[in-house]
């Protein structure tokens, strides 16, 4: 049983103009924002179920770039529809099967290559929210190229002991009253 969805306005932020721009990286579209000075540090932002076009995720990309990182939010849904606030929760399990957060490896590899070869990045971290937090957990178990990871309110994706075999430091942040993950699992 899932709680009622938040009635959340996924429209434009008032008076907020994005600071970055969209790029095509091989088969993936992405939103990129860079700091005003050269850096060899980068962050991949993995969006939640609302996708890479969601104004709030672009705002976060811009905030991280403002702290001095080349920041990129790829479309990890590869052009397929994100979850919409008008969708029905009864369909969520089927939607998740078609948008599996543990199937992000190929796209992550493409973005890592872009950051290293096109942007000169040497240290690359990853941060993800909810669906993206699950993807972060998966990537930090599989991809040693990622220097550090932050998973915000992403359910733990594996119940086995393997879930602890992180390749690099990973910070998990959960909400005390988050209905998607039990306090015991945290």
UniProtKB/TrEMBL annotation:
Top-level taxon of the source organism: Eukaryota
Gene Ontology MF terms in the entry: hydrolase activity
Gene Ontology cellular component terms for the protein in this record: cytosol
Subcellular localization(s) per the UniProt record: Cytoplasm, Cytosol
Dienelactone hydrolase domain ranges (all copies): 28-185
Pfam families registered for this protein in UniProt: DLH
Matches recorded under PANTHER family: CARBOXYMETHYLENEBUTENOLIDASE HOMOLOG
Family: Belongs to the dienelactone hydrolase family.
Protein name: Carboxymethylenebutenolidase homolog
Source organism of this protein record: Glareola pratincola (Collared pratincole)
Native organism taxonomy: Eukaryota, Metazoa, Chordata, Craniata, Vertebrata
């Amino acid at each position: 049983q899932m709680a009622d969805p938040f009635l959340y306005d996924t429209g434009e932020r008032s008076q907020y103009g994005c600071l970055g721009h969209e790029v095509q990286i091989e088969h993936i579209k992405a939103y990129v924002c860079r700091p005003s000075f050269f850096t060899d540090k980068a962050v991949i932002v993995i969006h939640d179920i609302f996708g890479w076009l969601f104004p709030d995720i672009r705002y976060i990309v811009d905030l991280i770039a403002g702290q001095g990182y080349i920041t990129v939010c790829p479309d990890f849904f590869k052009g397929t529809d994100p979850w919409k606030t008008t969708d029905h929760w009864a369909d969520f399990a089927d939607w998740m099967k078609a948008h599996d957060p543990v199937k992000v490896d190929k796209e992550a590899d493409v973005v890592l290559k872009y950051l290293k070869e096109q942007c000169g990045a040497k240290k690359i971290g990853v941060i993800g929210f909810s669906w993206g937090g699950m993807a972060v957990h998966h990537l930090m178990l599989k991809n040693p190229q990622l220097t550090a990871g932050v998973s915000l309110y992403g359910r733990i994706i594996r119940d086995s002991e393997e879930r602890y075999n992180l390749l690099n430091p990973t910070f998990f942040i959960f909400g005390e009253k988050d209905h998607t993950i039990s306090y015991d699992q945290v």
